[in-house]
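Tokens in:
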């Protein structure tokens, strides 16, 4: 727990920052100057912010962000504190949620965050900030992969790898909302969870080779990357598509896809108001909900990262801000 002394609560804010790369212990609560929104920007008073695998990977390796110091976090749910010039969509006091631009728009693991106005949408009234803070990055990832890139249609067969994970469990719900037949891979202990979400078939990846158990799939959503992406091509029907949300460095992914008469793409999630609006509509219709693996006060961000590092969570981890 942090014992940071508050000096000026009007002009400063608490953030979770790091000065070096490393394990969860490098995360520290510090106090910095509160930013002001520029034109077409919104200052959000953060109430909840999801923690995603990309957070703990950037914490450890820097990734696209380079060397620290930096403040992580892309998911955000909260209330509008102030708006910049030209912002007409929101006003102070509005409840909003969204994803900060990935990767360089990070910074939601803080009391306040700056967001371009077109990355936010109105938070559905029927869910709290924890739910809303858990949804943006994983939901946009699944929506852009399944709907915008794969054009998933009713009656089609979709295979979702790591279906009980953050992206996976949301993807199952989005696919069911589209009317698809959903097959998910997960360890045996998570099969009941996935069936409750609507999965039609579940495969224990530890006991079964999915390439032997699944055939004639229209869409594969691969959340694992690497060799899984390449092997997934073999379960597609002609004209089907594998969408990977992780980089696939092997040329075989694209070469084998061409030989098999299928498609292979890698997508990187993009902050998008239209996508957030579609997600909000699914939430309001009762067709989409995040499973919360754990909540942690902002000051305990390192504990959330320790849990995330295990790779064993079901659903999402969320930081809460008083």
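Residues out:
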């Amino acid at each position: 727990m942090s014992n940071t002394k508050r000096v000026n609560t009007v002009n400063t804010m608490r953030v979770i920052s790091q000065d070096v790369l490393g394990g969860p212990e490098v995360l520290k609560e510090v106090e910095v100057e509160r930013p002001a929104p520029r034109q077409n920007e919104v200052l959000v008073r953060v109430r909840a912010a999801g923690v995603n695998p990309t957070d703990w990977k950037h914490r450890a390796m820097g990734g696209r962000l380079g060397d620290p110091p930096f403040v992580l976090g892309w998911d955000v749910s909260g209330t509008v504190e102030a708006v910049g010039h030209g912002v007409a969509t929101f006003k102070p006091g509005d409840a909003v949620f969204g994803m900060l631009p990935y990767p360089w728009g990070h910074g939601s693991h803080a009391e306040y965050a700056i967001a371009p106005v077109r990355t936010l949408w109105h938070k559905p009234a029927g869910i709290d900030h924890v739910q809303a803070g858990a949804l943006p990055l994983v939901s946009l990832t699944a929506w852009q992969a399944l709907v915008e890139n794969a054009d998933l249609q009713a009656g089609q067969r979709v295979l979702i790898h790591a279906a009980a994970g953050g992206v996976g469990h949301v993807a199952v719900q989005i696919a069911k909302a589209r009317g698809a037949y959903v097959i998910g891979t997960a360890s045996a202990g998570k099969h009941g969870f996935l069936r409750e979400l609507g999965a039609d078939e579940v495969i224990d990846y530890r006991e079964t080779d999915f390439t032997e158990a699944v055939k004639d799939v229209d869409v594969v959503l691969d959340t694992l990357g690497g060799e899984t992406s390449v092997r997934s091509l073999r379960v597609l029907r002609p004209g089907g598509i594998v969408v990977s949300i992780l980089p696939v460095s092997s040329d075989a992914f694209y070469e084998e896809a061409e030989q098999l008469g299928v498609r292979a793409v890698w997508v990187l999630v993009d902050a998008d108001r239209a996508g957030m609006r579609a997600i909000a509509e699914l939430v309001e219709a009762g067709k989409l909900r995040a499973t919360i693996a754990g909540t942690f006060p902002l000051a305990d961000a390192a504990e959330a990262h320790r849990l995330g590092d295990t790779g064993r969570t079901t659903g999402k981890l969320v930081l809460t801000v008083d």
